[in-house]
Amino acid sequence: MPRPIKRLRWWIGGLLFLSTVINYIDRQTLSMLAPFLKVEYAWSNTDYMWLIIAFRLAYSVGQSIAGRALDRLGTRVGLSLAVVWYSLAAWLTAGFAGGRNSFAGFRFLSGLGEAGNWPGATKAVSEWFPKKETGWAVALFDSGSSIGGAVAGHQVEKATNTKVVGYRVQVQLDNGETRTFEPTQLDGLKVGDRVRIEQGQLRRV
């Protein structure tokens, strides 16, 4: 007979924390890339707004659906399906989104999947932790939202060699100098382009 895992509930808590970190990396990355996406696809603020609306609408509807599914399927199966769902939606976004409508559609799918994390994690805490430890357990997995947001920012900065500051972009030049530009100054640049500064604008090399 296999030996029971000591303090298994805290291993479960750690998995819930990691699930929340991944959830927020996925959620925050697109927001931090917004200045680049607006330039690359010539979106207005109204265009980008539809991506946000699609995600929020799906998220609000998805929480009720996820809660019902978790009660029917169980926490393990329901939460696993949610993670697979929004991971697949993220992959589809990266591979196939090419305009406002397709981005909004894939963000809608992401919202449906990501909505399952909080009901699932909360239900898991109620199942695995005694009442005297539930506050600590909830705090553990919920802290993943802050960690995930920070990691997303770091990954965007690393991938693009830039920092997004509000609606402006900080670009690190080859000489180590950091300059700040408005999205309108990026002149249609795409992530990964080599550039030079010409009359205050970034131009492709």
Please give a quick description of this structure.
This protein has 205 residues and is mainly α.
Descriptive report:
- This protein is mainly alpha-helical and 205 residues long.
- The chain has helices at residues 8-32, 34-40, 45-73, 75-96, 100-114, 117-128, 134-160; strands spanning 162-165, 168-172, 178-181, 195-198, 201-204.
- The protein has seven helices and five strands.
Amount of helix: 55-70%
How many strands appear in the DSSP assignment? 5
Rg over alpha carbons: 20 Å
Largest sheet: 3 strands, antiparallel
Strand order of the largest sheet: 1-2-3
Write the layout of secondary structure elements.
Blueprint: H1 8-32, H2 34-40, H3 45-73, H4 75-96, H5 100-114, H6 117-128, H7 134-160, E1 162-165, E2 168-172, E3 178-181, E4 195-198, E5 201-204
Antiparallel strand pairs: 1-2, 2-3, 4-5
Helix pairs in contact: 1-6, 1-7, 3-4, 3-5, 3-6, 4-5, 4-6, 6-7
Keywords:
205 residues; mainly alpha; 3-stranded antiparallel β-sheet; two-stranded antiparallel ribbon; 5 strands
